[in-house]
Q: What sequence folds into this?
């Protein structure tokens, strides 16, 4: 099936990440529209803990979530997989990389990374870009404010001869769906599988004090190939279109209607090609078949690590750090 997927994506993927260094960006884009279903109470922390970020579209308010709230957990899923197979370089600490040798790993090569220690300056640009996520439902339908009573450090509400009461509020997203665009720029087939797998197999997002540690279920709504230009169809355009046109169909739910609207928008751009339903099903099956099979995922990580070594050598002119943990 992998070979069939490779043929399907021919012209929209690179053979190896190092090709991007040797030949430059060649305008190969794979846009993945992700539906993130909220399955447990979740907090998307704002600067003010009593707020949940929102935006207005034609007088309606929708939950709006910054891209990093999803990219960071999915990047961490990738790092956990590398560590499982002893492919994470020694000295690599998330958001605290102290030397450039630690950037020689498949996660840094795909998701982008930089050195924050004494060396400074060394960085790899990301080739997987996340848009801000937007709720399909209106804010008042999915958000709920809760008042909490904090415990003291002693683990009890009793303090200084009386009961202490420390009230604070949080706004949770407790239901609904978020639409997000994840774009892969000039990636290899192995990197695409890796990135999609990290989306499908990550389920915990939001602030640490979210009530449920597994609060998001991810589904691939559509995959669109484009070259040589980027496709300018974003969650904002689609959600606005969904409400403005207010299409109804007894045989289709809101997600199916959204997908049909997405396909309508894509038709405006002759350089874009959406995967057909059976092609999308085959791609997702290939990703799940890899992630749920120890031998296949080990083979994937071995190949990605070899590609990472080639990329790092070309980028820096030196052999990559071979010590891994």
A:
């Amino acid at each position: 099936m992998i070979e069939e997927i490779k043929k399907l994506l021919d012209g929209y993927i690179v053979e190896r990440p190092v090709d991007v260094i040797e030949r430059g960006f060649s305008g190969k884009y794979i846009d993945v529209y992700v539906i993130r279903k909220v399955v447990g109470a979740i907090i998307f922390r704002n600067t003010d803990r009593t707020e949940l970020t929102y935006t207005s579209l034609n007088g309606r308010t929708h939950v709006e979530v910054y891209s990093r709230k999803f990219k960071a957990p999915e990047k961490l899923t990738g790092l956990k997989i590398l560590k499982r197979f002893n492919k994470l370089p020694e000295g690599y600490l998330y958001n605290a990389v102290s030397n450039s040798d630690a950037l020689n790993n498949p996660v840094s090569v795909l998701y982008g990374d930089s050195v924050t220690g004494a060396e400074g300056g060394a960085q790899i640009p990301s080739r997987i870009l996340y848009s801000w996520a937007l709720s399909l439902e209106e804010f008042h339908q999915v958000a709920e404010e809760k008042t909490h009573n904090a415990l003291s450090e002693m683990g009890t509400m009793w303090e200084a001869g009386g009961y202490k009461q420390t009230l604070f509020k949080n706004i949770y997203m407790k239901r609904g769906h978020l639409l997000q665009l994840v774009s892969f720029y000039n990636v290899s087939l192995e990197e695409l599988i890796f990135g999609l797998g990290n989306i499908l197999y990550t389920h915990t997002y939001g602030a640490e004090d979210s009530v449920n540690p597994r609060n998001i279920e991810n589904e691939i709504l559509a995959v669109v190939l484009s070259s040589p230009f980027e496709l300018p169809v974003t969650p904002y355009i689609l959600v606005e279109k969904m409400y403005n046109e207010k299409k109804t169909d007894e045989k289709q739910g809101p997600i199916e209607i959204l997908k049909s609207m997405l396909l309508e928008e894509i038709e405006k751009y002759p350089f874009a090609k959406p995967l057909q339903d059976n092609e999308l099903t085959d791609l997702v099956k290939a990703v799940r078949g890899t992630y749920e099979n120890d031998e296949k995922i080990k083979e994937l990580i071995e190949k990605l690590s070899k590609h990472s070594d080639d990329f790092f050598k070309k980028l820096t002119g030196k052999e990559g750090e071979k010590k891994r943990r």
Q: What stands out?
A: The chain has a mean pLDDT of 88. The CA atoms of residues 54 and 63 lie 4 Å apart. The radius of gyration is 22 Å.
